[in-house]
C-alpha cells in the first residue's frame, strides 16, 4: 500500500518526487492530477485507512474505492490535508472484505499542490465496533488512544452484557472540540480543553450500547479507556469494636477495592486512616471524641465509586 511507485496517474501534469519535513518520500500532485492504486484486498473487519498528505493551499483530497468486480465506486471520504502532513483516516467498512482500487482525487486552488506520502495501512482500531460517519486511527501510548483528526466520527460499541456492580461507563478524552457520550441511561457532552478529562455516563441495567460522538472541530482529539467500567465498591464483613473512645473497625472491600483509601471519619490517630490491602481487607483504629459521630469512609477513584457508612455506638 505504501509503495506509490506502482500507482498510476490521470491528469495533465505528471507527479514529481517530493518529501515531507521529516524526510518521508512523497509524490507531489499539481493541476488536480489523480492517483489510482493497483488492486488491493481490503481486510474483513477493516474500519479505517490511514492517508498521509500535505498541502498549504487549502486543498481537498477525495478518496474513492473502485471495486474490482465492476460495481459502483464508493466514496470513502474527503480529507483536508494540512501543512504538517498529519495522517488522517477514512472509513472503509463499506468495502471491507472486497478487492478494490483506491483513487485519490485532489481538488486544489489555482497553482495549489498536494504531497501524498503514505497510504495505509488498513486497520480496525476497535474490532467489533462501528464507526460511521468518519473514522479514527489507533495511536500508540499507555494506554493506546483513538486519534480523531479533522472530521467528526460516531463510534458505537456492540451491545454488551454488563457485570454486576457496574454503575457507569467511562471515556477519557483530550484535545480540541467536543465529545458526547451516552449508553442508554443519560448522555453527557463535554467541551474539551488542554487537560484530559474523564467523561462518565450512567450504565443501564443488564446490557448497554456505548455511543461516542467525537468532533475535533477541524483539529484533533484523542479517546482512551473506551467504555471502561466504573463499579460500586461493596463492603463486607464489617465489624466495629469499641473500648471507651477507642474504635476498631475491620472489613473487606473485595479485590475490586484493593488499595483504596479507607478512614474513620471523626476519629483521631495515625491508624484511623490507611489503604485497603491487595485483597481489599482493612483494619482501622482511632479515638472518637465525645459527641462526635463516627463513620467509615471509603474514597473511590476514577473507576471505583466509594461509600460512607455510619458506625454504630455511643457519641455522648
Report on this structure:
With 316 residues, the protein is mostly beta strands. Helix content is 0%, strand content 53%. The protein has no helices and 31 strands. The strands form seven sheets. Strands 1, 4, 5, 7, 8 and 10 form a six-stranded antiparallel β-sheet that branches. Strands 13, 14, 17, 20, 23 and 30 form a six-stranded mixed β-sheet that branches. A five-stranded antiparallel β-sheet has the order 2-3-11-6-9, with no helix packed on it. Strand 18 (178-182) and strand 19 (187-191) form a beta hairpin. The radius of gyration is 28 Å and the shape is elongated.
What percentage of amino acids are in beta strands?
over 45%
Strand count: 31
- Work out the radius of gyration: 28 Å
Helix content: under 10%
Stretches where pLDDT is under 50 for at least 5 consecutive residues are none
Global shape: elongated
- Please count the helical segments: 0
Keywords:
316 residues; mainly beta; six-stranded antiparallel beta sheet; six-stranded mixed beta sheet; 0% helix; elongated
What's the structural blueprint in terms of helices and strands?
Layout: E1 8-10, E2 16-19, E3 25-30, E4 34-36, E5 40-41, E6 48-54, E7 60-67, E8 74-79, E9 87-91, E10 99-107, E11 113-123, E12 130-131, E13 137-139, E14 145-149, E15 153-156, E16 160-161, E17 166-175, E18 178-182, E19 187-191, E20 197-202, E21 207-208, E22 211-215, E23 220-232, E24 236-243, E25 246-252, E26 261-265, E27 273-275, E28 281-287, E29 295-299, E30 304-305, E31 307-310
How would you sum up this structure in a few lines?
The protein has strands spanning 8-10, 16-19, 25-30, 34-36, 40-41, 48-54, 60-67, 74-79, 87-91, 99-107, 113-123, 130-131, 137-139, 145-149, 153-156, 160-161, 166-175, 178-182, 187-191, 197-202, 207-208, 211-215, 220-232, 236-243, 246-252, 261-265, 273-275, 281-287, 295-299, 304-305, 307-310. By secondary structure, the protein is an all-beta fold.
Amino acid at each position: 500500500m505504501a509503495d506509490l511507485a506502482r500507482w498510476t496517474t490521470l491528469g495533465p501534469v505528471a507527479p514529481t518526487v517530493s518529501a515531507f519535513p521529516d524526510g518521508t518520500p512523497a509524490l507531489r500532485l499539481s493541476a488536480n492530477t489523480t492517483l489510482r492504486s493497483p488492486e488491493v484486498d481490503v481486510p474483513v473487519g477493516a474500519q479505517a485507512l490511514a492517508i498521509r498528505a500535505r498541502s498549504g493551499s487549502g486543498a481537498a483530497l477525495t478518496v474513492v474505492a473502485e471495486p474490482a468486480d465492476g460495481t459502483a465506486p464508493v466514496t470513502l471520504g474527503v480529507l483536508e490535508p494540512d501543512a504538517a502532513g498529519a495522517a488522517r483516516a477514512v472509513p472503509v467498512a463499506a468495502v471491507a472484505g472486497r478487492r478494490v482500487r483506491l483513487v485519490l482525487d485532489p481538488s486544489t486552488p489555482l497553482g495549489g499542490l498536494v504531497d501524498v506520502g503514505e497510504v495505509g495501512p488498513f486497520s480496525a482500531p476497535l474490532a467489533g465496533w462501528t464507526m460511521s460517519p468518519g473514522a479514527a486511527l489507533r495511536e500508540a501510548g499507555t494506554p493506546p488512544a483513538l486519534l480523531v483528526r479533522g472530521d467528526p466520527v460516531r463510534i458505537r460499541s456492540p451491545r454488551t452484557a454488563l457485570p454486576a456492580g457496574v454503575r457507569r461507563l467511562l471515556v477519557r478524552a483530550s484535545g480540541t472540540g467536543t465529545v458526547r457520550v451516552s449508553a442508554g441511561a443519560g448522555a453527557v457532552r463535554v467541551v474539551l480543553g488542554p487537560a484530559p478529562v474523564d467523561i462518565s455516563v450512567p450504565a443501564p441495567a443488564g446490557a448497554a450500547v456505548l455511543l461516542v460522538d467525537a468532533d475535533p472541530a477541524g483539529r484533533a482529539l484523542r479517546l482512551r479507556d473506551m467504555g471502561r467500567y466504573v463499579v460500586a465498591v461493596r463492603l463486607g464483613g464489617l465489624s466495629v469494636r469499641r473500648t471507651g473512645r477507642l474504635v476498631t473497625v475491620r472489613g473487606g472491600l473485595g479485590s475490586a477495592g484493593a488499595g483504596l483509601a479507607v478512614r474513620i471519619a471523626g476519629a483521631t490517630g495515625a491508624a484511623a486512616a490507611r489503604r485497603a490491602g491487595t485483597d481489599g481487607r482493612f483494619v482501622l483504629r482511632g479515638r472518637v471524641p465525645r459527641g462526635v459521630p463516627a463513620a467509615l469512609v471509603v474514597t473511590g477513584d476514577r473507576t471505583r465509586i466509594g461509600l460512607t457508612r455510619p458506625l454504630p455506638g455511643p457519641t455522648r
